[in-house]
Amino acid sequence: MKAILHADREWGIGRNNGLMFSIPADMKFFRETTTGNVVVMGSNTLKSFPGGNPLKNRTNIVLYPGGEKRDDCTVVGSLEELFAEIKKYGKDEVYVIGGAMLYRTLLPYCSEVLVTKVDASGGADAYFENLDENPCFSLVYESEPVETNGYKIKFTTYKNNAVKEY
Asked: N or C: which end of the chain has fewer CB atoms below 10 A?
């Protein structure tokens, strides 16, 4: 399992249950990386999508304790159910896409974290753990900075050197 996100200078990842930045290059990277794969999210992340609908061309799994079952995505009510569901897929096919609580819960189980770093402050009210300060994670890839849509961004990959099994 991997995690994918964008973060500002302070590792902020969201504001008012939405993205802080609209950066087409980041959205393109997210779309190309996750299309045809499995995306795992919490209920608030699902609700933040247009119409509260799951992402197209992906298998959507939503951790939503007490949530209603739906035909357009798989709703699970517990971490145990979530792990049982994602075991049906290859570990490189599963991407955690938010929100903050789900990232925090599943981070130890992620082999990699793909972070688009935005050199700006987004006024976040939701944050991701600073992987540069986490001894379990190593920065294994960092692109050259790219100027896009008025922002300077870098695509990075962090490797988890102590992945927990689920």
From this structure: C
